[in-house]
Design a protein that fits this description.
Chains A, B: One of its GO terms (molecular function) is metal ion binding. Chains A, B: Belongs to the peptidase M20A family. Chains A, B: It comes from Skeletonema marinoi. 2 copies of one chain form a homodimer. In chain A, helix 1 (about 5-20) packs across helix 6 (about 165-180) and helix 2 (about 20-30) runs antiparallel to helix 6. Chain A has helices spanning about 5-20, 20-30, 40-55, 65, 85-90, 165-180, 205-210, 265-285, 335-350, 385-400, 455-475, and strands at about 75-80, 105-110, 125-130, 150-155, 155-160, 185, 190-195, 220-225, 235-240, 240-250, 255, 300-310, 315, 320-325, 355-360, 365, 365-370, 415, 435-440, 445, 455, 475-480. Chain A is built from 11 helices and 22 strands. Chain A is α+β, with helices and mostly antiparallel strands. The first copy, chain A, has 2 domains: about 5-235 and about 365-480, Aminopeptidase (3-Layer(aba) Sandwich); about 240-365, Alpha-Beta Plaits (2-Layer Sandwich), CATH 3.30.70. In chain A, strand 20 (about 445) and strand 21 (about 455) form a beta hairpin. Mean pLDDT of chain A is about 90; it is low at about 115-120. Chains A and B meet through strand 10, strand 11, helix 8, strand 12 and strand 13 of A and strand 11, strand 12, helix 8, strand 13 and strand 14 of B.
Chain lengths: ~475, ~475
């Protein structure tokens, strides 16, 4: 492929993506409008995406009705993959839950077998584009300017819960492929699109996807994985995250008998204060992982939810809180649990409080996604990781070329202080000689917060970057007319 | 009335009350089994009591069906008195609410016009026996040995929510009158039984009762009021109580952006910590009211209920708590509000938190119920209060004479560190030359707490005390056979 050809193709791709923006933005609006909080609209979003994939990339037949794989050439196989507890509960990376996995809980996979037409290429490279469809809760009463599930566009940004985290990323990765196909291009190698559930609480959706045979991994394939989470940089590491809940029992009584230590809510305050001391200990420079050098306060303990007591004039007998604990890559979850338990039990004993600790949700290892980029820059030697990052940098540079304020910007390579599904494609779970992963998505604001928004320019740039990367990594070939 | 006659009558009364214990205990069990938390079973308990009063003290006719006052002699008029917001909302002592007063919200009044048969006596003394039927919430999961609304009797105590506070007191005061009537006695003067709602949150039930013409108050009557709350002593004062709720808004965001001050739950902790400093200031000896001399920590601020956040991995944007604040008799509620507001606003401003304070529930003045007994002993001069207290002491001594461990015990006179409906009969609301009030009820344990219970021996002693007091205060006359 000559340089001239490459340039033409890039322009063609950029134009194709630009041409599809209206449609993509409309689809983004459609799925942001669905409240896909855990146990709410995950199923509806997945069904909406399944339909889109089938109509645009699949055979167009009603995959739901036929239930069978498409036999047409040049089509993605679009499937609904149930998340089945028995298949994942004993796997590494499973996070415990207290809810059921029924038929409403499924991932969507659209897979394309590239190179099958001529057999000449396609066997040694592959691409997985993955995103999650669930969102965290949003209550308008928390101060949203507009209802969180009635997306609006203002000053080049779409506002709404999940707009940034990560429905824009999901739509960008899907429409990147659609845009290519609209102008007649299909990847030369295997390409899989996967939308998963439960990234925001367990990662069990991604774990289940990993344990199907549908992902484009093999011992002879170099597979790149891009998860367009709302980080407008190349992610080289993520923190470990553990969720737990604590039930504190005091000695309930009339407020006239109030005495120190018997109030379960005040007990919860004291217990969390003890945890904050542990948080600071984790953050101490001597305990810090090298990849987080220069990052302010990477370990965060968050008291995310609390509920206790039932009457202003009764000393509360019980209080329950849910917390999220961050920890460094390389630290064992069991060690974190032991720290949490001993900290909380010591404090509870001191105060004479009853305490039950339970684990539900995240038991997510911290992970180094790009070990060759621990310092932010490549360590020197050429590798699968440097190929991957160089390609992404190149594609992003082209994608953002039209943006005067941003033109030619090199993406930073840095860690995130939270978790995401990328860990399942790190060297903790995959052979890093064959699989490389990062997150790179549109610039977003206030994710998990009020008035969450995503930049539509960045959404477009992300879509262009992915479309160009498909060309870089997989190669493209003209679809033969049927 | 000779001393010999008096002795015979006392024995007769004690026997009559003892004879009715099984029945009274059964009725207590019946109403403890009704969860009469605000907006739950207040109506059912009141209806049950109304029926009992009508059948035992009233005409026996279905007061609900007839709706008319009994015209039979020697009968109590038993009435359902609706609590109507418009009639109380501008009255002193009203506590604001955010619920409706519909037809399910009513007091029950049974009134007897004594002395009407011969006109010789009955006009210058009267007695009001009042109690509340509402209870505070109880959740079995908080550690109850038995379900809180399935009362059981064990080792001489009845266990169940409301057994002590104050259904035993209510049943004791009603069955004291029933016991007398069973042996043919009716009071010579006016006697009113009143059961009210909402003592545990507002006092608006008692306030509404005050604003009917049914209570036995007049410029020429000396009216004693006994509220058999679960205090096994004579109550000379009660604290002021103010309820408020605070809504704290932080700056919500993903936990990866956690920074000090943005977490609304942690904000609530800080705000309440600031309030605890104010609590200690209120408790300082120099600020203390004389009636609370020697009482440990009378001013209590209680964080009774909290709810905040919705996701372990989202920094909570809002948190709401409900609190109860105690304050001294003589302190103006507006001054307490100002203290609370300035304390909370200062802290919220310091932390950059949003704050809304709202008042719902108690705005209860502190009150000196027995000004002549501020030190616990009468100040010397004989008064309506000393007559009242002396009579109660005498009756209680007789009532508890059979109890070896307790025989002849003189009741303590002391203040309570909470509020109750007695304030409406204090000199804040009534002419203390004509009205005297206290609380005296059965010994109870763990009121507002887990495994609340009441001593059945003390329940009986309380019932005997009230029956004897009716004789002392009102005098008794034999009911004429129809």
């Amino acid at each position: 492929m000559s340089a001239a050809h490459e340039l033409v193709l890039s322009d063609e791709i950029v134009s194709a993506v630009d041409a599809i923006q209206g449609e993509a933005t409309e689809f983004l609006k459609t799925i942001v409008a669905i409240d896909s909080t855990l146990d709410k609209g995950e199923e509806e979003v997945q069904t909406t995406i399944l339909k889109l994939l089938q109509e645009t990339l699949g055979s167009g037949a009603d995959v739901e009705a036929s239930g069978a794989k498409s036999t047409q050439p040049n089509c993605f196989d679009v499937e609904r993959i149930p998340v089945i507890l028995d298949k994942i509960k004993d796997k590494r990376g499973f996070s415990p839950v207290d809810w059921n996995y029924d038929e409403s809980k499924f991932n969507v996979v659209a897979s394309y077998q590239g190179g099958s037409s001529d057999g000449s290429e396609g066997s040694n490279k592959a691409l997985l584009l993955q995103g999650h469809v669930d969102v965290v809760p949003a209550n308008e009463s928390d101060g949203w300017t507009h209802p969180p599930f009635s997306p609006i566009i203002k000053d080049g940004r779409m506002y709404g819960r999940g707009s940034g985290d990560m429905k824009a990323g999901v739509v960008a990765m899907i429409y990147a492929v659609i845009a290519l196909r609209r102008i007649g291009y299909l990847p030369r190698t295997n390409l899989t699109i996967c939308t998963v559930i439960e990234e925001e609480c367990t990662g069990n959706g991604a774990l289940a996807a990993n344990h199907t045979s549908l992902l484009p991994f093999s011992d002879t394939t170099k597979t790149a994985v891009i998860i367009p989470e709302p980080f407008n940089f190349i992610v080289n590491a993520q923190m470990g995250v553990l969720w737990f809940n604590a039930k504190i029992t005091g000695k309930p009584c009339h407020v006239l008998q109030t005495s120190a230590g018997s109030n379960a809510i005040e007990g919860a305050f004291s217990l969390f204060a003890a945890l904050k001391v542990l948080e600071e200990k984790y953050n101490e420079p001597s305990n810090r992982h090298a990849v987080y050098e220069g990052i302010d306060h990477p370990v965060n303990f968050n008291l995310g939810k609390i509920e206790g007591g039932n009457w202003a004039s009764s000393v509360p007998s019980s209080c329950r809180f849910e917390a999220r604990v961050g920890f460094w890559p390389g630290i064992k979850i069991e060690d974190v649990k032991r720290d949490i338990e001993s900290t909380l039990n010591d404090e509870a004993n001191k105060l004479g409080l009853g305490l039950e600790i339970a684990y539900r949700g995240f038991q997510a290892d911290g992970a180094i996604l790009l070990p060759d980029f621990v310092g932010g820059e490549a360590s020197g030697k050429k590798s699968l990781q440097t190929d991957f990052v160089d390609s992404l940098q190149k594609c992003y540079k082209t994608a953002s070329a039209g943006d005067e304020s941003n033109a030619g910007r090199k993406l930073l390579v840095k860690p995130i202080t939270c978790t995401c599904d990328a860990r399942f494609y790190s060297n903790l779970y995959q052979n890093s000689d064959n699989v490389v992963v990062t997150c790179l998505g549109p610039e977003s604001d206030s994710i998990h917060g009020v008035d969450e928004s995503v930049s539509l320019k960045s959404f477009r740039d992300c879509m262009v970057t992915i479309a160009l990367f498909i060309n870089e990594w997989c190669g493209l070939e003209k679809e033969e007319t049927q």
